[in-house]
Amino acid sequence: MKPNQSFAFNAERLARQTMQDVSPQQNRYRVSNQPQAQDLFSLWSRHLGNDRLFEDVRTEVHDANAYLDSARNRRMTEAGVRLGVVATFGFIGTVTTGFLGMNLIDETAASCG
């Protein structure tokens, strides 16, 4: 595996793991059953803007995931095109050698009689 392929594979794996970690219900943690702790958590969450930051990170992760999907699809398409070209030349070679290998003209019969 080439170094850039290894990096792309690791980046894709990291993006998929992050997508699984960043679920829609993640920012609704229950920190405590006590109302004071819940109120304090809510206060700090609003003060720090956790919902906005969460949406920013979530959007970036989705964008990274979409980019990695398109890059993987592009690589697979290029590999398919290369395989198609190789198969076409292989088919042409097979037909040509098959045609040339047939004994259409019988030289022995022509020279004997």
Kindly describe this structure.
The protein is mainly α. The chain contains four helices and no strands. Helix 1 packs across helix 3.
Protein traits:
single chain, 113 residues, mainly alpha, 81% helix, 0% strand, rod-shaped
Largest sheet: none
Strands, total number: 0
Low-confidence stretches: none
Question: What count of helical segments does DSSP give?
Answer: 4
Q: Which shape, going by the Cα principal axes?
A: rod-shaped
Distance from first to last alpha carbon:
65 Å
Computed structural class: mainly alpha
Question: What series of H and E elements makes up the topology?
Answer: HHHH
The overall average pLDDT, rounded, is 80
Helix content: over 70%
Radius of gyration: 32 Å
**Percent in strands:** under 5%
Secondary structure: elements and pairs:
Blueprint: H1 3-21, H2 35-48, H3 50-101, H4 107-112
Short description:
It contains 4 helices and no strands. The chain is an all-alpha fold and 113 residues long.
